């Protein structure tokens, strides 16, 4: 549980270190049109971290730079090419959006609180009279009831972990 929280926290911190910019390249592809194979050169866009002073997006009219080899530019770590520069711009803006940062921080806070509940509060502090009547029956074993409560809280923790999976898809460098 701690590893999960720390890992997502490190991913969020790493995303905020440098700003992402939209860059473009020429992509050679083969398309089939009317049962013919055609070799086509297309302009594709991708995101890249850039710490250079005065860097601009390639989608603007002021910047007409076309990068040659994307694999060397991205240090062979993988890349995602897209024809729509506006989609990549919205992804880039979403990464550094204050609303996204606040919601990710709130989810991490909830995950931390639930971790404390599952590992400390429920097993050590919770007594029979703390368990709601709806969650137990008259002849039921108290250990079974406590484990069910822990599993329910842990299920909420897992659900919150699933809310942060999109962070792993943001890495574009």
Helix and strand topology:
Elements (H helix, E strand, L loop, with lengths): L1 H14 L4 E14 L2 E14 L20 H4 L11 H11 L2 H28 L16 H22 L10
Antiparallel strand pairs: 1-2
Helix pairs in contact: 1-4, 4-5
Return the structural class.
alpha+beta
How many domains? 2
So what's the overall shape? elongated
Strand order of the largest sheet: 1-2
DSSP E strands, number: 2
- The tally of helices reads 5
**Strand content bin:** 15-25%
Helix content: 40-55%
- Let me know the average pLDDT: 79
The low-confidence runs, each spanning 5 or more residues with pLDDT under 50, are: none
Series of secondary-structure elements, N-terminal to C-terminal: HEEHHHH
Distance between the termini: 28 Å
C-alpha Rg, in Å? 24 Å
Q: What's the main sheet like? A: 2 strands, antiparallel
Nutshell version of this structure?
The chain has 173 residues and is of the alpha+beta class.
Please describe the structure with a list of short key phrases separated by commas or semicolons.
173 residues; alpha+beta; two-stranded antiparallel ribbon; 5 helices
Write up what this structure looks like.
This protein is α+β, with helices and mostly antiparallel strands and 173 residues long. The protein folds into two domains: 78 residues, no CATH class; 72 residues. The protein contains five helices and two strands. The protein has a two-stranded antiparallel sheet with strand order 1-2. Strand 1 and strand 2 form a beta hairpin. Helix 1 packs antiparallel against helix 4. The longest helix is centred in the middle third of the chain and has 28 residues. The protein is elongated, with a radius of gyration of 24 Å. The model has no long low-confidence stretch (mean pLDDT 79).
